[in-house]
């Protein structure tokens, strides 16, 4: 271990305070995403909103009211407040290319034990908020074909759902070939 790893200066002087295993987190103190120094008490979580049936013990605001709706209702056309700790919502659109969706499905299929290679390829079709995936595979000789195909279905559905953020309506697996493992005659 070097002197720097021990938290000492390169000349062997006394350890620097805070040196060693303290991680570096960029950002200004007090802003979201920063980590308080060790030993600093964490702020209390926000209190839950009172239910509309229970009387409110909140002191009245001194700010003038500008037709604000009663507690627990939203004004028409107003966006709902994001949950505590959620990232802020911004305007815009996010698109995932068909090639990306197909690559996610292909990589998920290749992760399954017993898959030797992709067959004719992968096709992803979108229908509203759901996707259907067609994948062709080659199974390694000696593996139970139905077990490998079922594992491909499950793996592709799981990873496509997680990474694409879409509902997976179906995963159709076509076993197109059986191959020996690489390196065997």
From TrEMBL:
It comes from the Bacteria. Residues 1-14 have a biased composition (Basic and acidic residues). Residues 49-78 have a biased composition (Low complexity). Residues 34-48 have a biased composition (Pro residues). Residues 1-91 are annotated as: Disordered. Belongs to the asp23 family. This is Asp23/Gls24 family envelope stress response protein. The lineage of its organism: Bacteria, Bacillati, Actinomycetota, Actinomycetes, Streptosporangiales.
């Amino acid at each position: 271990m070097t002197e720097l790893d021990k938290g000492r200066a390169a000349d062997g002087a006394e350890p620097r305070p805070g040196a060693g295993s303290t991680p570096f987190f960029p950002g200004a103190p007090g802003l979201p995403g920063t980590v308080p120094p060790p030993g600093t008490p964490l702020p209390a979580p926000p209190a839950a909103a009172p239910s509309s049936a229970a009387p409110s013990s909140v002191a009245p605001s001194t700010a003038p009211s500008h037709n604000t709706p009663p507690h627990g209702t939203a004004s028409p056309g107003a966006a709902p407040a994001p949950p505590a700790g959620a990232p802020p919502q911004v305007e815009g659109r996010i698109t995932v290319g068909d090639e990306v969706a197909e690559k996610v499905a292909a990589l998920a299929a290749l992760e399954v034990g017993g898959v030797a290679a992709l067959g004719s390829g992968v096709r992803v079709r979108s229908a509203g908020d759901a996707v259907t995936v067609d994948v062709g595979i080659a199974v390694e000789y000696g593996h139970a074909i139905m077990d490998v195909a079922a594992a491909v279905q499950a793996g592709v559905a799981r990873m496509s759902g997680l990474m694409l953020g879409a509902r997976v309506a179906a995963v159709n697996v076509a076993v197109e070939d059986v191959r020996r493992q690489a390196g065997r005659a």
